[in-house]
Amino acid sequence: MAPMDKNVKQLYDALVNLIINLHLQKDRLTREEMYCLLSVLDMVLADKEDQGLVQALREWQEGQPNQEIDAIIKATLLNIDFAKPAMLAANVDTIGELVRYNKSLVESRPAEDGPSPDEPSPDELSGDDEPSSEEPATDEPSSDE
Asked: What does each C-alpha distance from 119 to 52, 73, 124, 125 come to in angstroms?
């Protein structure tokens, strides 16, 4: 690891302790998740070449959630051998492709805000040319009697 200034070293130590604590004491991270996070931390704070991983992770987090794609990306991250730059680069490409695929799914999904201009309105479906102004009939007797 390259020499770090005092503040970066303190940040690094605090994050390592947090990650290890989340695994060992809190049981919130699996062993694989812990090692993955520690590897990413080493890569970022030691100024190692990340092959675009950090940017791919940012794009993933900025996108719309998709459980299936998120699970595939997580599995991909957990299986990266960070010591092998070629493997890291290939997995970063895979993550980028998944993020782009998810984005294309979101963009191709019809808007859920209301009917599209091509969809008929409820009045057009009922066959009425004009909206009805009559109140619906009820079986209750009127109170005027």
From this structure: 43, 37, 10, 10
